Amino acid sequence: MQNYIDRMVRAAKLDVNLYEEVEADKGSMGQAMGVVVLSSIAAGIGSIGTMGVKGILIGAITALIAWYVWAYMTYFIGAKILPEPQTKADYGELLRTIGFSSSPGLIRVLAIIPGMAGVVFFIASIWMLVAMVIAVRQALDYQSTLRAVGVCMIGWVIQAIILAILFAALGGKSF
Question: Is residue 174 in some structural domain?
Fold first, then answer.
């Protein structure tokens, strides 16, 4: 358990070595999924004032689906359409690294504090996006951070559209 917590903290600290570690550790898939679930539960708790208790369940389901979709989109875009010469990756590597890039999302639980939701969700979103760029750069063996940013942004737009549709279909309200 301590190793798991340590990995989440290192991921939130944007530790490049952590992302290399989970990229190579095929046994860390469950941990990566756990980070995604914990992060979504934190978001659900943080938004309980606007969504109620069902927001926790809806958030967990949509976060897991979004994780799979975003990882696949990132793999396809980054490894197949926009690879660098040294790019060598598989879908599992992206699932693991992207899963851990959700670690900063744990702070979203603080959005339960009245008047803080907007600020907390904004900070968490930016922090998670930066972690995602690092995760993608490491998983795809990119030399260029700018290429990783581009891949993440393309994937993010597609994933956001899919997430919004799923969220609405499951009865969530848009923010």
Answer: no
